[in-house]
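Appendix B, record 7
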Amino acid sequence: VQLQAYGGGLVQSGWFLRLSCAASGSIFSINVMFWYRQAPGKQRDLVASITSGGRTNYADSVKGRFTVSRDNAKNTIYLQMNSLKPEDTAVYYCNTRGGLVAGSWGQGTQVTVSS
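C-alpha cells (predicted):
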C-alpha cells in the first residue's frame, strides 16, 4: 500500500493543524500505523502510532497535544495537532510496519510553526 500525507502548512505558535494520510488500498488489515516527523538536520522520529483496535501511543513531546485516529472505511489515518510549538516544525510522514522494515517512505507534508 502506498501512503501520502497531506494537510501541512504554516501556522503560528498555539494554532492547530490536522494531517491526513491516505492509503492507496485498504488499511483494515494493517495492524499498526505510524506518524513520524523529521526536522531539518535531525533524524526521523516517531510521533504517534495507532493499532487496528484503536490503541494509541505518543512521543512524550506531543502527549496531550496530538491525537492520532484512523478511519478504515476511508483508508485514512489522521493526526490532530493542537497547541503547536515551533519545535513541531518538521516534515511529517505516515507509514506501516512493513514500510518501516523495507525503508520505504511516502510523500510527507511540511508543517512549519512560527513563533
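Remarks on this record: The mean pLDDT is 96. Residues 48 and 109 are 16 Å apart (CA to CA).
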